Structures are given as structure tokens and as C-alpha cells.
Amino acid sequence: MKTFRLCMLIVIFTTLSACRTEDGHRAMGNIERDRISLSASASEQITLIHVTEGQMVYQGEPLLQLDLRSANALVAQRNAELKQAQAALKALISGTRPEQLSAALAALKASQAANQEAELKYQRASKLFKSKVVGKADFDTAKANRDSAKAKAQQAHDQWLELKNGAREEDIAQASAKVQAAQAALVWQEKARQDLTIKAPTDGIIDTLPWHQGDRVVAGTQLISLLSAHQPYARVYLPASALTHLNIGDTVAVFVDGFDSSLQGRVRNIRSQPAYTPFYALNERDRARLMYLTDIDLLNAEALPTGLAVEVHLP
Hints:
Elements: H1 2-23, E1 26-32, E2 35-39, E3 44-49, E4 56-57, E5 62-66, H2 69-94, H3 98-130, H4 136-165, H5 169-194, E6 197-199, E7 204-208, E8 216-217, E9 222-228, E10 233-239, E11 251-256, E12 263-270, H6 284-287, E13 291-298, E14 309-313
Antiparallel strand pairs: 1-10, 1-14, 2-9, 3-5, 3-8, 4-7, 5-6, 7-9, 10-13, 11-12, 11-14, 12-13
Helix pairs in contact: 2-5, 3-4
Protein name: Secretion protein HlyD family protein
Pfam family, one: HH_YBHG
Main location: other
């Protein structure tokens, strides 16, 4: 009887040891896909929704439309500012028209004639004042008129010379810089308007869409969650005891629920920190139970749905 009990204990112990060893060579997890969050670039109202949850979409396809009226007005304003800056630059480069130069020359001659007349009147008034024929007031008036006519003649000469010589290089450079700034502002505003049309950045499936047409959202609000349709991967919990046997780039066998044959997977990433309690807070026995999140790319598995349970056989 004792011999029978001893044999049974040996069998049970051997079975448990085998199970423990087998569990140590497996990693459990789920099939995942890259999740892309699409957010609102401005505080606007949703005017149109093109898709529904669960719908397959393709790169560049419009998904949701925010109100464009404010953006259109700003684009028109930036376009007008650009045209204004371009016109100012063109005027400086083209120089003075002949009619403007002729008018400035005529104004210069008229001011010079008025200056000569005022000078003669001043000289006569000066002689009469010295002879005590006119008073101090008449002399001061003639002098003031002479100085005013001289200043106006100088001003007309400077204006004529400026038109004749054309714009300075510094003025042209400044006007050119204003044109470039206006162009950059227009490009930025057009990009901001384009961002109000939410488009699919890649092929994928609409996972969540909690908004409705007419809702008003603020900038930065998540509008749509998109699951990428490209290569899926298995996210599994790797036992700490397997860290020394598995490296990035290794190939492993992945078993999926509902499929008889295994899939080929390639280790993409192994987290450097455990998913649960920090290792320094555990003793040696407990540290062996730590799990590390590991991503394994699944080859030729694009048709598999997200969320399926998987089992990875470790080397």
C-alpha cells in the first residue's frame, strides 16, 4: 500500500513539473493592430460624417468634415494681403511712370519760380526797411515768405529727384520680404483649411466614432479611432524566465484560437520594464513570475480579426 502511494506521488509530482515547464515555454496574449487617433485641428462644428463604425476605409478617403466657413474667409484675407504686397513690390520695381515724373518736374519749376519771386520781394523789403520806408512787420512778413518758398522749392526738388532715381534697393528688399511673408501665411492658412477635412492616413477600419453631425468640438478633441489594416501583431506577456532565450528578430510559432495550424511570427519588441510590480520590490522566487509585454509581428495574417486570443510557443 505504501509503495502504491509513493508511486502515485511520484506521478503527480512529475505531471505538475511538466505542466510548470510547459507553462514556462508559452506566452499568452491577443492579436492587436496599430490604433490611430484622428483629432480636430480647430474648434468647429461637424458638418458631415462620411463613415460609420466598423467600416473599411482606404488611405486618403474623407471621413469627417468640419465647418469650412471661417477657414475660407481667412484664406481669402491672406490671398488679398498677398496681392497687395505683390502690387507694392511691382510698383517699386517698375519705377516712376513718365506722367508722374513730368508732374513732379512741373511742380519743381513752379516752386522755384515762387522762390525767386519771394527772394526779390524780401530784398526790396530789406532795402525799404533800412531806409525806414516800411516797418518791422512788413520786413518780417517778406522774410517769412522767402523762407517758406525756399523750403517748398527744396521739398519739390527732393520729390522730383526721388521719382527720377527710383526706389532704393533696401525698399525693394523690404517689399520682397513682405511678399514672402504673405505667401507663407497663405500656405499655412490653406493647410489649416485642409486639416478641417479629416481623411484616413492609411487603410484601416473605423473602430470608434462617438460624434454626430451638428456636434461642436474643440481643438484637440479625438474624433475618430482607426485600426490599421496593415500587418497585425500579437501582444503577449512574456515570462521573465524566457528573456534569456528570446531576442528581437527571432521567429516563433503562434497559435490562434480557431485555427489548427500555427502562424509564423517575428519578435518586434520586448519591453524593458515588467508589466506588473517592479522587480526590485520582489524576492528571487517572485521575480520569476514577472511578465514583459512583447510585440510579435504576424506574417501573412492580415485577414485575422483584432482581439483573438493567441498562444506563442517559446524556444
